[in-house]
């Protein structure tokens, strides 16, 4: 009886551990240089090229961010964006979330911030989310 209970406990723990590992790998990993489902991403150049930063949540101060794998700051350097979240993202001109804004609906790709939004090229300093 004790052996059976130990074996059953081991099986349950193994299943729980395997389930936790699978659910962890399915989630987006912010700031890993890859724009994954559930993230909002900005790019240094047009057409989603050059440097990238990816987030799963809001960031109201781009001054403390750099392009993935570099020390180059991203504040006022964004030229394109991709909203892979299931909610709207607001890309703001000023730190804290004020000034001109680009409202980017769920799933939308902005290949040219200057031409595709009211926010000019290289003017983004923050983003918020309406989730």
TrEMBL record:
The record's keywords, sorted A to Z, are: Signal
- What Pfam families has UniProt attached to this entry? Inhibitor_I36 (PF03995)
Signal peptide stretch:
1-28
Question: Could you name the domain of life of the organism this protein comes from?
Answer: Bacteria
What name does the UniProt record give this protein? Peptidase inhibitor family I36
